[in-house]
Amino acid sequence: MAPEPHKREEQGGPAVFFLHPDLGIGGAERLIVDAAVALRSRGCRVQIWTPRFDPSRCFSEARQLEVRTAGDWLPRSILEGATRSAPRSAWSASRCTWCSSVREPDAFVCDQVSACIPVLRLFRTRKKVLFYCHFPDQLLTKRESFIKRLYRAPLDWLEEYTTGLADCILVNSCFTASVFKETFKSLSHVNPDVLYPSLNFSRFDTVVSADVASIVHKRRFLFLSINRYERKKNLILALEALHELRSRLDAHEWSETHLVLAGGYDEAVQENVDYYEELKAVAARLGVEEQVTFLRSFSDEQKIALLSSCICVLYTPSNEHFGIVPLEAMYMKCPVIAVNSGGPLESIVNNQTGFLCEPLPTQFAEAMEKFVKDPALKRVMGAAGRTRVLEKFSSEAFTEKLYQYIHRLMQ
């Protein structure tokens, strides 16, 4: 029996099907939802196919889209990284191609898991596929042992081969484009285009939610970190920087300082559960637990409230593929302290919209101290950040570019 859609829409334009491994809360999910909304605004009939979708753990716009689920019955614990999603995504792709009640698609958009592309090729040979590469999966897994390198070899080959089957390949930053070329040697003839993620500005033009008032009004100097509870996001750096900051402030300044670690959290993902407990233990060991609030799986309204009230956002992952959080912060006139690698090099202007630092607690603390000692700095850098986002990362530019890619695929 065909899976039931969570939401139907009636439009007369071309049909574009998205395939995504888990429509939860994260940067990749944010982009897919924004892309679907963007194409729908141009008259496209949009469906998102995914193995897993929880309406209580998703971006609010996802609940207004037509989302179909298939493949959630397959185990999540096979292998690691995006490869563990490959069987689930492949099954979801097969369901969307031969399900008799599904309208005929004109094009497919896949991201994260390229293993679904051969399935689409098998059943829909005349339909074009756009693959959006956030980052090569093989670089997201560690190779500590010979056995691990051995079993990863065919998976790496599969990722490279199936990625090359796409008719159009996009990446989220110039950094990812360079990594793509260095990683996929057999695809040296492919020059992926850069399509920066964007912001739907209207999402942020709202009133502050009252349900986090006890947090946002607790301290004068509120620092905010927004990232999933995953070790690669290096949230411990934020805690260690807060500990280092303590030695730079007087007693009154420290009493007015607080850090909120807000992030996507899924109890079904063991790493989320383990890392949350690890972070609480680190905060206790450093003696800063009274100055830290852990907020898991927060709503859009809570995020807007926090961004409206904090003096700075700490963005701690290294070599981040792009990073949507710095854009959200800068649009809300909030400066960003980020690691000086990866996507933030393209979104943040050092000493103008924030600070780019080495991933060291001392350097992050030094930058944080500047906002405590000179509160006016937030206003100056915040205004510069807002201007940069409006000029370079508008949803209108993103929508037009994406629509043109889809249009060219269908010709």
TrEMBL record:
It catalyses: an alpha-D-Man-(1->3)-beta-D-Man-(1->4)-beta-D-GlcNAc-(1->4)-alpha-D-GlcNAc-diphospho-di-trans,poly-cis-dolichol + GDP-alpha-D-mannose = an alpha-D-Man-(1->3)-[alpha-D-Man-(1->6)]-beta-D-Man-(1->4)-beta-D-GlcNAc-(1->4)-alpha-D-GlcNAc-diphospho-di-trans,poly-cis-dolichol + GDP + H(+); a beta-D-Man-(1->4)-beta-D-GlcNAc-(1->4)-alpha-D-GlcNAc-diphospho-di-trans,poly-cis-dolichol + GDP-alpha-D-mannose = an alpha-D-Man-(1->3)-beta-D-Man-(1->4)-beta-D-GlcNAc-(1->4)-alpha-D-GlcNAc-diphospho-di-trans,poly-cis-dolichol + GDP + H(+); an alpha-D-Man-(1->6)-beta-D-Man-(1->4)-beta-D-GlcNAc-(1->4)-alpha-D-GlcNAc-diphospho-di-trans,poly-cis-dolichol + GDP-alpha-D-mannose = an alpha-D-Man-(1->3)-[alpha-D-Man-(1->6)]-beta-D-Man-(1->4)-beta-D-GlcNAc-(1->4)-alpha-D-GlcNAc-diphospho-di-trans,poly-cis-dolichol + GDP + H(+); a beta-D-Man-(1->4)-beta-D-GlcNAc-(1->4)-alpha-D-GlcNAc-diphospho-di-trans,poly-cis-dolichol + GDP-alpha-D-mannose = an alpha-D-Man-(1->6)-beta-D-Man-(1->4)-beta-D-GlcNAc-(1->4)-alpha-D-GlcNAc-diphospho-di-trans,poly-cis-dolichol + GDP + H(+). Pathway: Protein modification; protein glycosylation. Residues 218-387 form the Glycosyl transferase family domain. It is found in: Endoplasmic reticulum membrane. One of its GO terms (biological process) is dolichol-linked oligosaccharide biosynthetic process. Residues 25-185 form the Glycosyltransferase subfamily 4-like N-terminal domain. Keywords: Endoplasmic reticulum, Glycosyltransferase, Membrane, Transferase, Transmembrane, Transmembrane helix. PANTHER family: ALPHA-1,3/1,6-MANNOSYLTRANSFERASE ALG2, ALPHA-1,3_1,6-MANNOSYLTRANSFERASE ALG2. Belongs to the glycosyltransferase group 1 family. Glycosyltransferase 4 subfamily. Mannosylates Man(2)GlcNAc(2)-dolichol diphosphate and Man(1)GlcNAc(2)-dolichol diphosphate to form Man(3)GlcNAc(2)-dolichol diphosphate. This is Alpha-1,3/1,6-mannosyltransferase ALG2. The gene is ALG2.
